[in-house]
Amino acid sequence: MELTGDKAKAWLLNFEAKIQEHKAYLSDLDQAIGDGDHGSNMARGTEAVKVNLEKIAEPETAEVLKQAAMALISKVGGASGPLYGSAFMQMAKTAKETTDIHELIEAGLEGIKHRGKADVGDKTMVDTWAPVVEALAKDALTNEAITQAVDATKPLKAKKGRASYVGERSIGALDPGAVSSGYLFTALVEEVLQ
Ligand code: ADP
Ligand code: MG
Ligand code: MG
Description:
The chain has one domain: DhaL domain (Serine Threonine Protein Phosphatase 5, Tetratricopeptide repeat, Alpha Horseshoe). It is built from nine helices and no strands. The protein has helices at 5-21, 23-33, 38-54, 61-75, 80-94, 101-116, 126-137, 143-151, 176-193. The N and C termini lie close together (11 Å). Bound molecules: adenosine-5'-diphosphate and magnesium ion (2 copies). Keywords: Glycerol metabolism, Kinase, Transferase.
């Protein structure tokens, strides 16, 4: 499946709407194992993405992804800003070669791993992105698969980021960045894959 410029724009506008809708919930999740700002960080960042994208009349995939990256890097603050920013910057670079969705999201995952040095099982957004990349490789990404990946962060002990400071206490809580990434991919399913 190809990510056209129009679909990329629709995807990210849908993501913004989901983040605004669940802003308080994301901050509550972060309050439990971090500093309680993930919802407001992402709401501010995706609002800036929306402002940038609404200026683009004829969306082109690489440009949409790059505008998203720049907005997220400059406006999110916190660990998640540069991580989501790296993901979208790598996707923008890759989009100059291919607009295949699996390859784009895989490049995004590599961007996150390169920037944050987290791997699968560390209880971060990587635990959503990695299974999503695997599902996309099989053309089998569904909302159920996304929910399963997000929920699987609950029993994990955080090894990266602020949540790692609370150690054992992070066990039993969802990872906020894994949840916000879940909204990103639910939006992808809705706008692009269905
Ligand atoms: P901060 O922790 O600086 O307040 P946020 O609350 O916005 O930033 O984001 C926290 C989220 O960032 C975590 O829930 C986790 O998913 C993600 N995260 C933190 N560190 C890393 C990392 N090294 N690699 C991948 N994701 C990370
Ligand atoms: Mg936080
Ligand atoms: Mg913070």
